[in-house]
């Protein structure tokens, strides 16, 4: 009898799960709806923007500081970060945020719920933890993206909501470049962005496609046999406390490339000829790319964001 009861519960659970996936969970919008949503670019921002970053160490402290130096005078930003933090943990009060005290011990910290709901930001940039497949499967990434996006929209209807596409571990068993090629559509778009579009067809979120920029830049330097002393993806990444290559966190060169991508999407301007000698968040000089490498980074960023309509940048 007990075994039969367990079997019945198992069957009911499977049926409930199937019902959820088939009927309750938002389906991907019709391709025509997606095309229409991204056919019209966002209007250019009228001036410097106030931006809120929600995420983890792949946002970090230095990249937003570099972005501010690239942006028009008056650009401001705040953030709430953690270590490998999913959007769910930022939302749920009873979920721990690892590294909270370390990542938010700076003047730019502001509590995310207060900030995003305030209506004080021109743009809210959200990103998800890695491994992204696990976050989508187990931590309801699409639901929590929409929760945060809706909070921003309720605070101010014209706030621009962006999904920051990050990257993967350099030693990913499926291949770093392969993951960047595959996961944009399979995970970032179908798993998160378009789920939100299904719920909000008249208020589409847009993408900051850093992963695609990294892929294009690395392939370009490999094809050229190196540019400005950069010959491989590893040189974009940082060094860990033991002096070894950090296979997930960007170094100064990588952060510069990430900041350029944010700039191009947010301001809809070519980053070509922007400064390449910048400061870190603590005020110390960042390692600068050579002029040749900086120029290629800037060109690759603009080529990427203007050939992907979901950025909201005119194509």
TrEMBL record:
| Top-rank taxon | Bacteria
Q: What is this protein called?
A: Uncharacterized protein
| InterPro entries associated with the record | SGNH_hydro_sf (IPR036514)
A molecular function (GO) held by this record is: hydrolase activity, acting on ester bonds
Q: Which organism is it from?
A: Ruegeria sp. PrR005
Q: Which Gene3D superfamilies match?
A: SGNH hydrolase (3.40.50.1110)
């Amino acid at each position: 009898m007990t075994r039969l009861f367990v079997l019945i519960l198992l069957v009911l659970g499977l049926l409930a799960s199937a019902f959820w996936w088939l009927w309750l969970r938002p389906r991907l919008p019709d391709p025509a709806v997606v095309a229409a949503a991204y056919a019209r670019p966002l209007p250019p921002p009228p001036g410097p923007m106030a931006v809120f970053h929600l995420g983890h160490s792949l946002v970090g402290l230095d990249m937003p500081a570099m972005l501010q130096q690239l942006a028009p005078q008056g650009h401001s930003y705040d953030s709430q970060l953690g270590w490998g933090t999913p959007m769910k943990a930022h939302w749920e009060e009873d979920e721990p945020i690892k590294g909270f005290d370390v990542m938010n011990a700076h003047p730019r910290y502001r509590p995310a719920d207060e900030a995003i709901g305030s209506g004080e930001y021109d743009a809210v940039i959200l990103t998800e933890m890695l491994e992204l497949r696990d976050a989508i499967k187990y931590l309801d990434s699409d639901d929590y993206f929409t929760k945060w996006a809706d909070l921003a929209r309720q605070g101010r209807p014209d706030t621009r909501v962006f999904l920051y596409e990050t990257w993967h571990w350099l030693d990913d068993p499926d291949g770093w470049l392969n993951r960047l090629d595959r996961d944009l559509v399979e995970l970032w778009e179908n798993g998160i962005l378009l789920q939100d579009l299904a719920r909000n067809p008249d208020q589409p979120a847009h993408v900051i496609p850093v992963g695609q920029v990294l892929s294009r830049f690395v392939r370009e330097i490999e094809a050229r046999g190196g540019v400005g002393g950069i010959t491989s993806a590893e040189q974009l990444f940082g060094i860990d406390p033991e002096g070894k290559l950090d296979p997930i966190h960007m170094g100064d060169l990588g952060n510069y490339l990430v900041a350029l991508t944010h700039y191009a999407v947010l301001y809809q301007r070519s980053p070509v000829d922007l400064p390449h000698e910048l400061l870190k968040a603590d005020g110390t000089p960042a390692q600068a790319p050579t002029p040749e490498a900086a120029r290629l980074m800037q060109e690759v960023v603009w080529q990427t964001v203007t050939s992907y309509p979901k950025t909201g940048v005119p194509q």
